[in-house]
Every structure is written in structure tokens, then in C-alpha cells.
Design a protein that fits this description.
Blueprint (H helix, E strand, L loop, with lengths): L1 H16 L3 H19 L3 H11 L5 H24 L5 H7 E4 L2 H8 L4 E5 L5 H11 L3 E6 L5 H11 L5 E4 L3 H5 L7 E6 L10 E5 L2 E5 L2 H8 L4 E10 L2 E10 L9 H16 L13 E4 L2 E4 L5
Helix pairs in contact: 1-4, 2-4
């Protein structure tokens, strides 16, 4: 059945991918109405996340963020399909970089780095564009899909311009490799981790756990850490702002790398909450009086 589903979906994927960006967003405007007003995909998750993250905002303000987010998530999904056939020239036109000297300086020192971010902006488009806009080759950690046909398809288009994709299971082995080139090891760190093995901090007004691999890898391999914040300039156009978290991870107090990561991501979300993935059940667990407690997402 998985194979049949893949081959049924394939013509639709290519039909969308071959659309010019201008028509892509006409389609997105239509699909937004369907997704938001008819399907209402995970509205109960989005609303709970927004209310707890922004308790100071009015219902009117929260509703605006909600609608802007759903409009963006449809843009994101169609942009992701566009990535299947997008050209090098289009990527260079649509993705720019601020503070590139942060990476150039580290690259001149022949240092491998850890690049970190969140599910903020279109990471699929940025993954394809990075080989053209930064001096490093990059290895991006990802979670393989359960459908092996889709997994192979997405792996092939994600790597076609030089990105190296690393499954979560292989991350520890891959970061330890000695290569004949310098690389950026890319980790997206804003999903719900196992609570007992998390770094805990206050994030968007809630006690929140973060995966610890970012800091553990940085300390173990003495790798500088750079935050790449992908801001949306306009539809289909993104600017990546480079921000150095630390060049010497082992000189920082324990937890400081993850704390800085959380603060940079939090500020980006507050500045433009519409392009973070509010449909994620990000707070499956929280802390109350120092104890880890499960969170219920109710319809």
C-alpha cells in the first residue's frame, strides 16, 4: 500500500513542483481556505500552544497569529514540493545571508562547526540553498520517514545540490568522522525530547525541555556553535542571519549553549510567530514544582 500511495502522489508532486512561484502562491491562497476553514488541521494544538505561549495577547491577536500561521504552513508545504525541481539560480535569488563573516572566519581557521536552528522558516528550501551561500559543506540531521519510497524520494531531492543527510540514528557516528573537508553539522533543536534526558528552561512562558545533543556534541568535539535564524523577507524569500553562540564550548558553564539557543529561537518567534510550527505537540511534558508532568492536548 505504501508503494501504491507513493506512485499515486508522484504526479501531483511534480505537477505542483513545476508551477512558477507566482502560480504556486495562487494555489496556496486557495488551499489555505480549505485547510483552515474546512479541514482545520490540528487547530486545537495550535490554539493551546498559542494561548500558553502568549498569555498577554488578546483573543483577537491570537486569532490573527493563528490565521497567519495556517497561511504560512500551506506556503511552506508547497515550497517544499517546489524544492523537487527548483533551480540553482532560483535558490541563489531567494535565499540571502546576513553576517556571513561569522562562518568565513571559522572556515579560515579550518574548524568544523555545529549549526543550529529551529523549525522556523522553510528549512527545506534553506537546506538546498546552503551549499551556494555558505563556505561550508553541511551535514543535516533528519528523521527518516516510515514510508521507504517517500523517504528515498525526499532524500534524493534534499541532497541533489550537495547537502549530506544524516539520520538521527547515525548522528553520533557521522559527527565523529574525520573528513578531508570542513563541514557544518546542522541540528534542528525545538521538538519534544524524552523529558528525563532534557535540558529544562523557561521558553515562551512555559517550562520546556530541549534535546541535549547540541551541547553534548559541541563539548565532546570542541566545535564552535552558530545559530542560523531563517527570517522570511516575503513569500518565497528568506534571509539567514548567522549568530555565533560560542567558539569555545568547553569554556562555557554547563547548559549555557542550550540556554543561548533557546533565547535566540524565542526572540525570533516573538518577532514573527507566524513561521514557527505551532502544529507540533511541542509541550507533551512540562515541569510543575520541579516535577515533570505530562501535558494533555485536548480537542
Amino acid at each position: 500500500m505504501k508503494r501504491i500511495g507513493f506512485y499515486i502522489a508522484l504526479p501531483f508532486i511534480y505537477a505542483v513542483s513545476l508551477l512558477p512561484f507566482r502560480l504556486l502562491y495562487v494555489l496556496s491562497d486557495f488551499l489555505y481556505l480549505l485547510v483552515y476553514y474546512v479541514i482545520g488541521y490540528r487547530k486545537y494544538v495550535v490554539r493551546q500552544n498559542l494561548r500558553k505561549s502568549f498569555p498577554e495577547k488578546s483573543e483577537k491577536d491570537l486569532l490573527k497569529i493563528e490565521k497567519d500561521f495556517y497561511h504560512y504552513i500551506v506556503d511552506f508545504l508547497l515550497e517544499m514540493l517546489k524544492c523537487v525541481t527548483v533551480s540553482e539560480a532560483s535558490l541563489k535569488k531567494r535565499v540571502s545571508v546576513t553576517n556571513i563573516e561569522v562562518l568565513e572566519d571559522l572556515h579560515k581557521k579550518h574548524k568544523n562547526i555545529i549549526a543550529t536552528s529551529g523549525h522556523y522558516g522553510n528549512h527545506e528550501l534553506l537546506n538546498l540553498a546552503l551549499p551556494f551561500v555558505i563556505p561550508y559543506r553541511h551535514k543535516a540531521v533528519y528523521r527518516p520517514l516510515s514510508n521507504k519510497y517517500f523517504d528515498k524520494f525526499f532524500y534524493n531531492f534534499r541532497t541533489r545540490y550537495g547537502a549530506m543527510m544524516v539520520s538521527m540514528a547515525e548522528a553520533s557516528k557521522e559527527i565523529a568522522k574525520i573528513e578531508d573537508f570542513n563541514y557544518a553539522f546542522f541540528l534542528v533543536n525545538d521538538q519534544s525530547p524524552p523529558p528525563e534526558r532534557s535540558y529544562w528552561t523557561t521558553f515562551l512562558n512555559q517550562e520546556t525541555g530541549f534535546f541535549t545533543g547540541l551541547e553534548r556534541f559541541a563539548r565532546q568535539y570542541d566545535m564552535p556553535v552558530v545559530y542560523m535564524c531563517a527570517n522570511r523577507v516575503s513569500r518565497g524569500y528568506y534571509n539567514i542571519r548567522m549568530q555565533l553562540i560560542t567558539e569555545q564550548p568547553n569554556q562555557l558553564p554547563e547548559g549555557e549553549i542550550l540556554e543561548k539557543h533557546a533565547r535566540i529561537l524565542e526572540k525570533a518567534i516573538i518577532d514573527d510567530p507566524s513561521i514557527w510550527f505551532w502544529t507540533h505537540k511541542r509541550w507533551k511534558y512540562t515541569k510543575a514544582n520541579g516535577e515533570i508532568v505530562p501535558v494533555s492536548y485536548k480537542r
